[in-house]
Write a structure and sequence with these properties.
Radius of gyration of chain C: 15 Å
Number of helices of chain A: 3
Largest interface: A-C, 48 and 52 residues
Number of domains of chain A: 1
Largest sheet of chain A: none
Shape of chain A: flat
Oligomer: heterotrimer
Shape of chain C: globular
Number of strands of chain A: 0
Chains: A mainly alpha, B mainly alpha, C mainly alpha
Radius of gyration of chain A: 16 Å
Chain lengths: 96, 78, 161
């Protein structure tokens, strides 16, 4: 599958790259906070910040309609995963 | 731009893998797996395999749910 | 350069106001919708935060809310214009039902954000700036300090209740 959009063609120091840099830095920061946190349920709150940043990174890099669906599927799937982990950790049955 | 992207995403994957290795609780190991796959999906999407990225993003939570249903309830407190 | 940074700050403020307003109008801080959100609320309250703010943060984690709606609508408008935003709204609605959450906060947030973001596109603030702004807005709620963020959300919830 060949895309007509080549992500390597954008200059590194172009001002239009600032949103991508922000998303990447926020993702790294959220991962470090997840590793540093002790409580399992509060790890999930930081993990959601990482999901937001990764979704933004995927869609910002490749402006294609298929990338939108990949980002949507990733976000909904990670929300479902966090829901399942939190429900099982609390102890209620996961009714799905 | 590619250098920054590859640096950030590979750093996320490496932190996730090390965290899976060093954490004790099984729930923390699942969170580490989520971090690792969250770093892997932008790599797949960067090369243009967007359908593969969509499929991985759908399969990832389903495997987690099957693992949680197989192992059952919380067994340790950490 | 400076104009882009200013645009990002404006976009962060606008998306913060959108998702906090819609989440509070739809009574998310009242209770944890699913059991996972309930547990996260109690975990944040045990750290010294507020219980109602913790419920709202747990609801943001456990099912797609207005925050997810604003982000995904910005992604849709960035890729495909207003139809992309409406596709994102439909997918957020389906995701709400998959996550076992009977609510319309995500759908309403996505539809509102689609039109607001396309209106801001007319005056020069492009949708990719809104994606970065939404990431910063969610970072201020969930990423900095859970205690003070939940106390702030509790203060805003008191006005509604």
């Amino acid at each position: 599958m060949m895309l007509e959009y080549d992500p390597g063609m954008i200059a590194i120091y172009s001002p239009t790259m600032i949103p991508i840099y922000l998303c990447g830095i926020v993702a790294i920061y959220a991962v470090i906070r997840v590793v540093m946190e002790k409580n399992t349920l509060r790890k999930l709150v930081f993990l959601s910040v990482m999901n937001f940043a990764i979704t933004g990174l995927v869609v910002l890099t490749i402006p294609d309609i298929m990338a939108l669906f990949a980002g949507l599927a990733y976000f909904i799937g990670s929300n479902l995963e966090a829901n399942a982990i939190a429900s099982t950790y609390v102890g209620g049955e996961y009714s799905k | 731009m590619n250098e920054f992207y590859i640096l950030v995403v590979s750093l996320i994957i490496i932190i996730g893998v090390i965290y899976v290795y060093i954490s004790r609780s099984p729930f923390d190991k699942l969170i580490g797996l989520a971090i690792m796959l969250g770093g892997a999906i932008p790599f797949i999407a960067l090369n243009g395999y967007l359908d593969v990225a969509l499929l991985v993003a759908v399969i990832m939570p389903l495997t987690t749910i099957f693992i949680l249903q197989a192992t059952g309830r919380k067994t340790d407190d950490s | 350069m400076t104009g882009l940074v200013l645009n990002i700050i404006i976009a962060a403020l606008v998306s913060w106001i959108i998702f906090i307003t819609i989440d509070i109008i739809f009574k998310l801080p009242e209770r944890g919708g699913v059991s996972g959100a309930d547990g996260i609320g109690h975990a944040i309250a045990a750290d010294g935060g507020s219980l109602n703010g913790g419920f709202m943060m747990g609801n943001i984690v456990c099912s797609p809310d207005a925050s997810a709606g604003v982000l995904l609508a910005a992604c849709g408008v960035f890729v495909a214009g207003i139809p992309g935003g409406l596709i994102a709204a439909v997918v957020v609605y389906v995701g709400n039902r998959i996550c076992n959450d009977p609510g319309y906060a995500g759908f309403t947030g996505a539809v509102w954000a689609t039109f607001i973001i396309s209106w801001f596109g007319l005056i020069g603030i492009t949708p990719d700036v809104f994606i970065a702004g939404m990431v910063i807005a969610i970072l201020t709620i969930q990423g900095i300090s859970h205690r003070y963020a939940s106390l702030l959300l509790n203060r805003l919830w008191r006005i509604r209740a």
